[in-house]
């Protein structure tokens, strides 16, 4: 077993390694730098078999996400002036999104918005209306993104929005109960429109 990474010719450490089933190891960063070439570059035994990057890759991806969030928090969003606004109208290129709202306007999926380092707190901070979120995204995606009941109330969830969520999602994910429903000032008509059974 070699103690040198054949991709960069530098010495291997004991951490941050990508090890193939054949036993050859490389720096994790070297393997991730060429994501479409997943075969072992030393032998032909592992043709088209992905390396075992273990928990190091997950840790690296989480660190990357945290770094994006911190960079965004440290760098204030620049307000566009009149000139840049006119240029953006006549430019055929779409500017890269800088805010949660920018991502929504460009119809980005919530998983993409999350990968860019945004979370439910950003939607709250930017005062996004919950009606805009629930009309663009599926209930499953909204919950997977991390929106909880407190976020939804802050963003202005209304009784009709509850129809987008299944009974299971309402009970187990949102932890919806009578007290929360009463705080929404749910009317008898709105309650009837939800078509709850007597069991529910």
What does this structure look like?
The chain has 200 residues and is mainly α. It has two domains: 17-70, no CATH class; 98-193, no CATH class. It has helices at 28-33, 54-74, 82-90, 100-105, 110-115, 120-125, 130-136, 139-145, 149-154, 167-173, 178-183, 188-193; strands at 17-19, 25-27. Strands 1-2 form a two-stranded antiparallel sheet. The termini are far apart.
Determine the fraction of residues in helical runs and give it as a percent range.
Answer: 40-55%
Total strands: the figure is: 2
Write down the overall mean pLDDT. Answer: 77
How much of the sequence lies in strands comes to under 5%
Q: How many distinct folded domains?
A: 2
Order of helices and strands: EEHHHHHHHHHHHH
How can the largest sheet be summarized?
Answer: 2 strands, antiparallel
Shape: elongated
Low-confidence stretches: none
Through-space gap between termini:
62 Å
Largest beta sheet: strand ordering: 1-2
Q: Could you tell me the radius of gyration in angstroms? A: 24 Å
Summing up helix and strand content along with how strands pair, one would put the structural category as mainly alpha
Helix segment tally? 12
List keywords for this structure.
200 residues; mainly alpha; two-stranded antiparallel sheet
Blueprint (SSEs and pairs):
Elements lengths: L16 E3 L5 E3 H6 L20 H21 L7 H9 L9 H6 L4 H6 L4 H6 L4 H7 L2 H7 L3 H6 L12 H7 L4 H6 L4 H6 L7
Antiparallel strand pairs: 1-2
What is the gist of this entry?
By secondary structure, the chain is mainly α. Helix content is 46%, strand content 3%. The chain starts with 16 loop residues before the first strand and ends in a 7-residue tail after the last helix.
């Amino acid at each position: 077993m070699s103690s040198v990474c054949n991709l960069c010719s530098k010495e291997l450490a004991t951490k941050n390694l990508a090890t193939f089933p054949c036993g050859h190891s490389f720096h994790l960063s070297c393997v991730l730098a060429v994501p479409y070439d997943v075969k072992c570059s030393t032998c032909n035994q592992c043709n088209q078999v992905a390396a075992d990057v273990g928990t190091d890759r997950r840790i690296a991806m989480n660190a990357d996400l945290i770094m994006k969030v911190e960079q965004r928090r440290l760098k204030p969003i620049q307000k566009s002036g009149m000139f840049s606004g006119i240029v953006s109208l006549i430019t055929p290129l779409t500017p890269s999104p800088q805010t949660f709202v920018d991502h929504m306007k460009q119809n980005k999926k919530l998983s993409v918005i999350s990968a860019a380092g945004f979370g439910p707190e950003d939607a709250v901070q930017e005062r996004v209306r919950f009606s805009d979120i629930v009309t663009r995204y599926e209930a499953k995606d909204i919950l997977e993104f991390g929106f909880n009941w407190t976020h939804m109330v802050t963003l202005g969830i209304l009784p009709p929005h509850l129809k987008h969520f299944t009974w299971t999602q309402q009970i187990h994910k949102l932890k919806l109960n009578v007290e929360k429903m009463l705080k929404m000032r749910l009317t008898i008509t709105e309650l009837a429109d939800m078509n709850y059974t007597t069991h529910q």
